[in-house]
Amino acid sequence: MLKAKPLDVLTHVRHGFFTREGGVSKGIYASLNCGYGSDDDKENVRENRARVAEKLSVEREKLLTVHQIHSPTVALVTEPWTPETAPQADAVVTATPGIALGILTADCAPVLFADKKARVIGAAHAGWKGALGGVLEETVEAMIRLGAERQNIAAAIGPCISQDAYEVGPEFRARFLEADEANARWFEPSDKDQHAMFDLPGYAQARLETADIGTVVMLGKCTYQDEKRFFSFRRTTHLGEKDYGRQISALMLRP
Q: Cβ-count burial of 78 within 10 angstroms (0-12 exposed, 13-18 middle, 19+ buried)?
């Protein structure tokens, strides 16, 4: 797993941006596929998630994810739920120790949050739609309601698709410009007529900096370009594969 220094130095938090390596899944899901939404064997996914939980030193049933729907919705966690009862949301926050908050991605940006002093953490799934809709800011506000201080919040943007690999059509760019003309800076011309290359991690970072939190860092790893370490929905699409796995990013408050 990969780590972000601003979170790694916090003695009350454990975290990790896990790669696709180190699991039991086979074929296109090899090997640490943590997504129940894939067509992978559910027992393999269960074992993979158990390995992640073990790495975080948390009980396997306390590694929680949500049904992600590309929304700004944030779920408050006070006790564990099952995969079947997980809420529809794209971010989770908690002040409860011993529960790991997980985000599944395969090109979208996983963002992990922790207050440097207060025992409050959060995790967000920031695809383009969620980021544009305000999921990152909503996560920050939910943490503040639990007792976090804005200037004490550190956020780390994990592996996601880079601008060099993210070509979008004119209607995509138009949606961002309609929201704010200044969003033009996140697009560069592509080789394809009327298309552009979108900087998702840069956009997410800017949204967090505008939210005026204490620290924002970006790991700078591209899921599309590094096939060995990361699943990628877009790469799967380009290769004509039938499905794809999901890597997990997670953090927890130490008991």
A: exposed
Q: Distance (Å, rounded) from C-alpha 233 to C-alpha 105?
A: 9
Signed CA dihedral, 203, 208, 214, 219: sign only: negative
In whole angstroms, give the CA distance from residue 251 to residue 113.
8
pLDDT tens digit sequence for 104-138: 999 999 999 999 999 999 999 999 999 999 999 99
Contacts for 48 with CB less than 8 Å, ≥ 6 apart: 23, 24, 25, 31, 32, 33, 34
What's the whole-number mean pLDDT along residues 206-221? 98
Longest Cα separation, the chain:
54
Give the SS3 label for residue 241.
Answer: coil
Indicate the SS3 state at residue 28. helix
Those residues with Cβ within 8 angstroms of residue 216's Cβ, 6 or more apart along the chain or in another chain: 154, 155, 156, 157, 205, 208, 209
- Residue 108 contacts residue 127 (beta carbons within 8 Å): yes
Write the CB contacts of 164 (distance below 8 Å, at least 6 apart in sequence).
Answer: 197, 222, 225
List of residues 6+ apart from 148 with CB closer than 8 A: 115, 118, 120, 140
Which pLDDT band holds residue 34 (cuts at 50, 70, 90)? Answer: very high
Tokens representing 145 are 């309601």
Facing residues of 167 across strands? 197
Q: Rounded CA gap, 172 and 151, in Å?
A: 33
pLDDT in tens, 144-159: 999 999 999 999 999 9
CATH 3.60.140.10 for domain 5-160+216-253, yes or no, is: yes
